[in-house]
Amino acid sequence: MAAVRVIVASVAHLPHGYAIPTARGMLLSKQGAPLHMVASGLLKLRRSSSATGLQSSRRQQQVQGGKFGSGGYTHSCRALQAQEYTTKEDGETQTLDYRVFFLDKSGKTISPWHDIPLHSDDGLLNFVVEIPKETSAKMEVATEEPNTPIKQDTKKGKLRYYPYNINWNYGLLPQTWEDPSHSNPEVENSFGDNDPVDVVEIGERQAEIGEVLKVKPLGVLAMIDEGELDWKVVAISITDPKAHLVNDVHDVEKHFPGTLTAIRDWFRDYKIPDGKPANKFGLGDKAADKEYALKVIAETNEAWAKLVKRSVPAGELSLV
If we measure between CA atoms, which residue out of 294, 290, 269 comes closest to residue 118? Predict the structure, then answer.
């Protein structure tokens, strides 16, 4: 029986990513998904294999002005402000065919990059988990495939793994894009890496592939990977026990001592075992503060808005 995991962005931590409130579960059950009660009083959702063959459909991206926040003006998709998503796995894990697709409440396949809002309703950020902490499979959103599912990265036809586990939950900020035609004069005039902005989430819980967590941004590292600028936003899930203690980089040093250095060193060195040079970092080799991180997020959100409006060339990127 194929499982459809329910991710509730407004309740970022539910056991194993399967549980949903009963009221919403009954709503989903009307769509033909048999539901099973669990001891906690929540519901676990599963669909039979025949019910999960959902067809991808092209959709017209509509971009509208968002709202002003502490990070500046944001843009979001008009059609998808619902805070509940499910994931559907196709293929076997650790194979070239494995994909994790995202669905909205109606069962329509959506893009985790383009359709999940950058900002949640309460001003926090939505973070899409690609790689759970303490794992090594290099999972990523397939930016050139329709609906941009999560897949395992490949090189020369072989699945890619980090040489050692990553120690934090890792993923992306939806509705952001690092424009490869834009050079940043503050970071050695490096050009964007043509991907969404990455997030390193420092909370204690191991998330699951495809979870959508609400996070607080705390700072940002300016990694330079083979000449390309690859921002790493440091953030924490709002459900983490220490989330109320940290609001900026100096709080991270106080309550998670050594973490910022460990993140920088991990991303600096992870390619060395494969015979490649170490990555570099701009901004003085240190994490910039929350204010700077919000500026980066606002700028890359604006770049994404231009991309989906086709104001700039998309190249091979999928906009659906």
Answer: 294
Verify whether residue 98 is a known catalytic residue: no
Q: Tokens 């490096």 belong to which residue?
A: 190
Residue 11: domain span:
1-50
Q: What is the pLDDT of residues 161-205, one digit of tens each?
A: 999 999 999 999 999 999 999 999 999 999 999 999 999 999 999
Q: Quick check: is 315 in a domain?
A: no
What is the predicted pLDDT for the residue at 222?
A: 98
Q: How many domains does the chain have?
A: 2
- Report the CATH number at residue 251: 3.90.80.10
Residues 17 and 113 in one domain: no
On whether residue 109 sits in a domain, the answer given is yes
45 and 174 inside one domain: no
* Pair of tokens at residue 200: 């390193």
The bridge status of strand 228-237 relative to strand 198-201 is parallel
Domain membership of residue 274 (yes or no) is yes
Q: Are 209 and 131 in contact (CB under 8 A)?
A: yes
Catalytic residue among 18, 73, 161, 162: 162
Give the integer Cα–Cα distance in Å for 291 and 296.
9
Which one of 9-23, 53-67, 267-281 scores highest in mean pLDDT? 267-281
Q: How many other C-beta atoms can be found within 10 angstroms of the C-beta atom of residue 319?
A: 18
Residues with Cβ within 8 Å of residue 154, at least 6 apart in sequence: 96, 160
pTM, to two decimals: 0.77
Using alpha carbons, select from 190, 188, 189, 193 the residue that is nearest to residue 178.
Answer: 193
Long-range residue pairs from 155-164, CB within 8 A, at least 24 positions apart, any chain: 157/96, 159/94, 159/95, 159/96, 161/136, 161/137, 162/136, 162/137, 162/138, 162/270, 163/136, 163/270, 163/273, 163/274, 164/136, 164/270
Which phi and psi angles does 144 have, rounded to 5°?
-105, 5
Residues 41 and 71 in one domain: no
pLDDT of res. 123: 75
CA distance 3 to 86: 10
